[in-house]
Amino acid sequence: MPVTPLPRHIVTEAVTRAFAEDQGGRGDITSNACIPTKAEGKFFFAARDAGVLCGVQPMVEAIWQLDPDAMVNVQMEDGDDLSPGDVIASVHGKARALLAAERIALNFMGHMSGIATHTRRYIDAVANTAARIAHTRKTTPGIRAFELQAVQAGGGALHRYGLDDAILIKDNHVAVCGGVANAVKAAIKHAGHMTRVAVEIDRLDQLEAAISAGAESLLLDNFSLEDLRAAVSIAGGKVTLEASGGVNLETVGDIARTGVDIISVGALTHSAPNFDIGLDEG
After folding, report:
1. By CB neighbour count within 10 A (0-12 exposed, 13-18 middle, 19+ buried), where does 100 fall?
2. What is the CB-side half-sphere exposure of residue 82 using CA atoms within 13 A?
3. In angstroms, rounded to a whole number, what is the distance separating the alpha carbons of residues 80 and 113?
4. E strands, 167-231, where?
5. Which CATH superfamily is domain 8-123+273-281 in?
6. Whole-number Cα distances in Å, 64 to 53, 70, 79, 243, 281
7. Count of H helices and E strands in the chain?
8. Residue 40 is a catalytic residue
9. Is 94 one of the catalytic residues?
10. pLDDT at position 191
């Protein structure tokens, strides 16, 4: 599926931070010690497993930060399916620069492709249902934009990006406000007409109060399958229902078949295995 590119400044800043962390104050002392200054190299990035690609932007950025004149031939795009041996991109440039950029490029692509691939597994597990798979805010500090782009590459739906783009009243907000209805009414009074108001409930008996108070979306936290089905019946399509908690690849299919609209899965970003991509000479 088409993947929205990240703003250039976000990619540039993240890759710059990664190089500062990796190179310290002395740079790549291994390459500097054994590779002549003017030596050139030809390499290619290739998949070593089957999955979904993501991370092309930071890969290219990493190469060009160290060798602005390097030739990068990108052959696959974010969101593409990968098979073992598929060539993602070939590069030709200063050998020292390419080898110094290798690990940063692979770290971004491996992590992001891992998330995209893990997301695809969840998408496949809810096939033939109407449920959408969405991310959460359980992301690695500093690289959320990259991880959420990877969820999109895998076919996942976008949830709220951060605290400032949607109102989601959670259990502790409810406790402080003195109940679901109080919290929802206060949020609606504060929010502009463009801001969606959602509320998390952890008991079925809170559902009607939340709907009556004006909530547009309900997050059903750790509901049993029986209670999820009951919530779908009671809501009758009046609000968006999101299931969350206790979701894994073994449970997600049954959750989807209850009729909920969205299933949010923290594991998409916090538990995705790294995807194996290598840089080889050639």
Report:
1. buried
2. 34
3. 10
4. 167-169, 197-201, 217-221
5. Quinolinate phosphoribosyl transferase, N-terminal domain (3.90.1170.20)
6. 20, 7, 22, 43, 18
7. 11, 12
8. no
9. no
10. 87
Using an 8 Å Cβ cutoff, are 135 and 162 in contact?
no
* pLDDT for the residue numbered 1: 66
Contact between 109 and 55 under an 8 Å Cβ cutoff? The reply is: yes
pTM exceeds cut of 0.85: yes
Cβ 122 vs Cβ 265: under 8 Å: yes
- Closest-CA residue to 154 (of 53, 67, 260): 53
Domain ranges of the chain: 8-123+273-281, 126-270
Whether 221 sits among the annotated catalytic residues: the reply is: yes
Q: Is 242 a catalytic residue?
A: no
Which of 40, 171, 221, 227 is an active site residue?
A: 221
Tell me if 8-123+273-281 shares its fold with 126-270.
no
The two three-digit tokens of residue 225, written as one number: 């399958």
- The pLDDT of residue 12 is 98
Tokens of 11: 């990619």
Find the catalytic residue in 28, 78, 80, 200. Answer: 200
The catalytic residue among 22, 40, 49, 103 is: 103
Catalytic residue among 121, 137, 144, 170: 170
The answer to whether 200 is a known catalytic residue is yes
Q: Does domain 126-270 have CATH number 3.40.50.1110?
A: no
Residues in the chain: 282
Instruction: Report the alpha-carbon angle 75-270-197, nearest 5.
Output: 100
Q: 10-residue block means of pLDDT along the chain (282 residues)?
A: 91 98 94 95 98 98 98 98 98 97 98 98 97 97 97 95 91 90 91 89 94 94 97 96 96 98 97 97 88
**Parallel, antiparallel or unpaired: strands 81-82 and 51-52:** antiparallel
